[in-house]
Amino acid sequence: MDVVSSTQAWVNKVIVKYNICPFAKKEMDRGSIRYCEDNSTDIEGVLERLTEECVFLDNNEQTETTLLILSEACTDFDSFLDLVYLSNHLLQMSHYEGIYQLAHFHPDYCFEGDPEEAASNYSNRSPYPTLHIIRESSMEKAIAAHPDVDAIPDRNIEFLNKKGSPFFADLLASCLLVK
After folding, report:
1. Which three-class secondary structure state does DSSP give residue 171?
2. What is the mean pLDDT of residues 7-32?
3. What's 19-71 look like in SS3?
4. How far is CA 115 from CA 60, 69, 120, 169, in A?
5. Residues in Cβ contact with 36 at an 8 Å cutoff, skipping those fewer than 6 apart
6. Which of 4, 7, 108, 139 sits a CA distance of 20 to 30 A from 129?
């Protein structure tokens, strides 16, 4: 299974096609999304790679964003949430706070207070655990240019609920079949 191809399929077939993130299509069309597999088996290895990716983005302005895809680590959602906490702390301690921010996705993503089977969880479900490193300055510009950024989550929840969990479960599974 090619984790990068599966993740690219997910971005294309879910995130962009259904406009889950209205900012993603522009970057996909520009080819400015970096997809990186990390096969570390522990959190320390992932944190090291996260730092390397921030340095890469520092030195490569044509790359807008990086999806750091974890093929081995944090397959359990609770351990992934621990990683997200530590990753945000690392950004702060490395003086990257305000330069980069993280979004995060996981195959078992579940918003606090929502049942596991809720369709709304599919806005953050991905084929593999993924840390999305975003340039904060670019995000600020995109948000300022969007007509109603506050409506995005509600629109997504309404759309996801309308389509239903089985639809998105099948769609996510189809991304894993990509070779």
Report:
1. helix
2. 96
3. CCCCCHHHHHHHCCEEEEEECCCCHHHHHHHHHHHHHHHHHCCCCCEEEEEEC
4. 40, 25, 9, 15
5. 4, 49, 53, 66, 67, 68, 69
6. 139
> What confidence category does residue 95 fall into, taking pLDDT thresholds of 50, 70 and 90?
very high
HSE, side-chain direction, 13 A CA sphere, residue 52: 12
The answer, yes or no, to whether residue 149 has pLDDT greater than 90, is no
Cα(94)–Cα(102) distance, integer angstroms? 14
Determine the 3-state secondary structure of 120 from DSSP: helix
In the predicted model, is pLDDT for residue 128 greater than 80? Answer: yes
Three-state DSSP at 112 gives: coil
Q: How far apart are CA 169 and CA 136, in angstroms?
A: 31
Distance CA 36, CA 53 (A): 9
pTM beyond cutoff 0.85: yes
Rounded to an integer, what distance in angstroms lies between the CA atom of residue 158 and that of residue 154?
Answer: 6
Length of the chain: 179
Cross-strand pairs, 35: 67
